[in-house]
């Protein structure tokens, strides 16, 4: 597994370095990567680990690196990034917190109200 991982990381790093070098610094700072993969591969995905390290992004941020299931085309990936950016802008405008729409809008109230319900366990 280590040999295959080394080969894949080497190829990924080579391509990412070439592509990013072609961009002006102002555009490099705005690059957003979508790592497409299967549901079970999300945890510790090679691509996610690589691009998070490349961009210095913490594991829970998903600001410039996003994992996506069922994204089959570049257009799908672009649409996903556009939706994320729109959601963040709306959340910032309405809630003052750009990550607020990443959780259920009713979730905070639900957490409080669930305390009042009687469950049989």
Structure keywords:
single chain, 53% helix, 121 residues
The number of E-state strands comes to: 2
Radius of gyration: 18 Å
- Main β-sheet, spatial strand arrangement: 1-2
Q: pLDDT under 50 segments (min length 5)? A: none
The biggest beta sheet is recorded as: 2 strands, parallel
**Ends: how far apart?**
45 Å
Order of helices and strands: HHEHEHH
Q: State which percent range the strand residues make up.
A: 5-15%
The DSSP helix count reads 5
Structural class: mainly alpha
Principal-axes shape call: extended
Helix content: 40-55%
Mean pLDDT: 91
Question: How many separate domains?
Answer: 1
Task: Explain what the structure shows.
The chain has 121 residues and is mainly alpha-helical. It has one domain. 53% of the residues lie in helices and 7% in strands. It is built from 5 helices and 2 strands, in the order H-H-E-H-E-H-H. It has helices at 2-21, 25-28, 46-55, 74-95, 107-114; strands at residues 33-36, 65-68. Helix 3 (46-55) links the parallel strand 1 and strand 2 (65-68). It is extended and about 55 Å long. The N and C termini lie far apart (45 Å).
Write the layout of secondary structure elements.
Layout: H1 2-21, H2 25-28, E1 33-36, H3 46-55, E2 65-68, H4 74-95, H5 107-114
Parallel strand pairs: 1-2
In short:
Helices cover 53% and strands 7% of the residues. The chain has 121 residues and is mainly alpha-helical. It has one domain (2-104).
């Amino acid at each position: 597994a280590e040999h295959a991982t080394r080969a894949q990381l080497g190829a990924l790093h080579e391509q990412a370095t070439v592509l990013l070098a072609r961009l002006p610094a102002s555009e490099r700072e705005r690059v957003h990567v979508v790592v497409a993969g299967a549901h079970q591969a999300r945890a510790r995905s090679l691509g996610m680990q690589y691009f998070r390290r490349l961009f210095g992004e913490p594991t829970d941020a998903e600001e410039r690196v996003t994992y996506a299931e069922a994204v089959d085309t570049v257009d799908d990936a672009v649409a996903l990034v556009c939706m994320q950016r729109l959601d963040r802008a709306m959340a910032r405008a309405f809630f003052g917190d750009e990550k607020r729409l990443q959780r259920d809008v009713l979730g905070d109230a639900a957490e409080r109200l669930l305390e009042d319900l009687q469950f049989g366990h």
